[in-house]
Amino acid sequence: MPDLYPLARRLLFAMDAETAHHATLSGMRAADALGVLGLLTGSGRSPDPLESAVEVMGLRFPNRVGLAAGLDKAGTAVHAFGELGFGHVEVGTVTPRPQPGNDKPRLFRLKEHGAIINRMGFNNPGVAGLLANLERSRKDFRGVLGINIGKNFDTPNEEAIRDYLLCLEGVYGAADYVTANLSSPNTKGLRDLQNAETCRELILRLQERRESLQAGHGGKRVPLVIKIAPDLSDEAVAALAGVFSETRIDGVITTNTTIAREAVAGHPLANEAGGLSGSPLTEQATAILARLRSELDPAIPVIGSGGVMTADDARAKFEAGAALVQVYTGLIYRGPRLVREIAVMR
To answer: Which residues are catalytic?
Structure first.
């Protein structure tokens, strides 16, 4: 099938970035409802899951490439993303209560760098809204569903654990795994939760709540994952690796977006507040992955995210120790063909 995405990208890139984002999701849902999404994108379905399936965190993933959180915040297009070939889809970040996020404009393309800056700010429909959307959008999705959780912007850090527990309780029945997002730069003070002691307390409280939820859901055990930032020092990574190993967290995602701007210095949009993703993040995110992997208990899997723009970028993350990879900005610049290129890798 021809790859029609370059033409679609020209049209989408002529729009404001956030308008294009919503137009893409709407178009995907419509094409999926008609059963033609795979044909229009040239991607078709993912490879036969029996040929490329992997087991991670006790879950069977049809392949090793997933959609990173942030692209489908409201969980409206899970099945559609599955039709693009993703073996897992992570929706959210979701917070207990709905919130609009930060003021617009809040999403910017740095096309010369293959990058995006976003300061969306956890705009989402809240747990109840997300679950209602998933009822419609998940349908017969064959992959693994992750749900990324966070705190409301007006919840002080000393009460943040309450928000994470509320989210875990709300999404437990729908999720295959749950990721606690401690690393978005777009919610004030959120990254402070990455300090070792606070992170340890959060994990232990989540694990404790999971025990009771597991009993109430027929023994269903939902793996818990932590997502960390790429801007951590070696000392901070080592301290967190110790916490993760001690608490036996089920998995870690490296990394979220970066607040660094050296790689895009001089660009007219470089000083926009928010998290930078895409090509400028590739090496930094992979280095954090390798550093964490070297410090972490070998039994705990790491999921590589951040700057996966090509199959070679994904391969570098696998070689650094990733069990799975996730794509976001690479999908925007490369389209669905990137998903297949990674999914068929051996």
So the answer is: 184
